[in-house]
Amino acid sequence: MFENLSLKLDKAFQTLKGQGKITEINVAQTVKEIRRALVDADVSYSIAKDFTNTVREKAMGQNVLTSVSPGQLMTKIVNDELTDLLGGATSPIQLQGNPAIILIAGLQGSGKTTFSGKLAKHIKSKGKSPLLVAGDVYRPAAIDQLKVLGEQIGVEVYTEDGSKDPVGIAENAIKHAKRNANNVVIVDTAGRLGIDEHMMNEISNVKKAVQPQEILFVVDAMTGQDAVNTAKAFNDRLDFNGVVLTKMDGDTRGGAALSIKSVVNKPIKFISDGEKMDALSVFHPDRMAGRILGMGDVVSLVEKAQQNYDEQEAQRLQKKMRRNTFDLDDFLKQLQQIKKMGNLKDLMGMIPGVGKAIKDVDISDDAFKGIEAIIQSMTPLEREQPDLIDGSRRKRIADGSGSSVTEVNKLLKQFGEMKKMMKNLNKGGAMGRMNPAAMRRR
Length: 442
Description:
Distance between the termini: 37 Å
Oligomer: single chain
Number of strands: 8
CATH topology of the largest domain: Rossmann fold
Order of helices and strands: HHHHEHEHEHEHEHEHEEHHHHHHHHHHHH
Strand content: 5-15%
């Protein structure tokens, strides 16, 4: 996501490298490269031009402090303008009402139904009791998909077999929610192949009947400027509250994310970057601007870690590390926790400076599969005491995991080195200082 744009913006700032001050000439060169980078990212020329004109105006006449280089100053200006272009401030979803009603709209194939499931899981994690409503009366597969997702995340799905009346389904679902203490109703509507007048009238009627607190327009980020044009057409009819960008983990240049706020004047509320039910993030314009400019996004990384953080388990591991009894079973559990956090390359890209370093590195989500298979082929005793693993055991583990003895040896060697490092940290008292309870006391 935004990888090419990040590289091209970085190249634009190189124009100012070594420059002692900002001048009309070096600003003009930098701004030209920034505009080209935005257009290449599928941002419309008019938006790219307005953006760079603003950057130029703010850059000219700026006095560069001795502690700040022209390149750093330009990066700060572009960061501020990117944040504004992406929406400025975070726009939270509104859940007032009893129940709060959320209407999901979008074209067919944009990922509406999957997003509905993800949103229900997200809202459930906030202590709410959501109800999913299968309002797509034209595509039986959509109803079945929603049922599967609902079962997967433990959320009830309201359906009416044989009904072809989406307005009636939505109204009945709200009555059902009130009877069953569901305080949020998420209505998944039928997708459209295009701006179909009949279908637009239908969703307008659903809106009029249920008076939703939120209307979210779901759009496929990979469609670029087409996504922006579609959003405008839907907004003209529905006056929706916010945008959801899906498939942000695909080969997207980012044009939709960068343009949509300027065109429809509605905020991006969520981004979806994977098929897993927890692959949904609240959209923060300032954090996204930082990631685009290679500054990382440590706050989001910490939040993802906290979502998958089990305090009791962390304290148990802390004690094992301090006693130097951390074993391969514990290591396996930690790998599985990391996998729950999302796409590995995206996670690493949130660390400042790392995104650029790994731009050409192919990091698969299956990167840990081989390690997991090797550990899972060991007996409980072998995981607890790796020193017991002799040549014959290594051969058995390799055969059982579909790997080679060399790969088993490599894992055992790396684990041994990690244990030595933990032992040295214990000697220096670092493990004690890392104790979560001690850190909270500070």
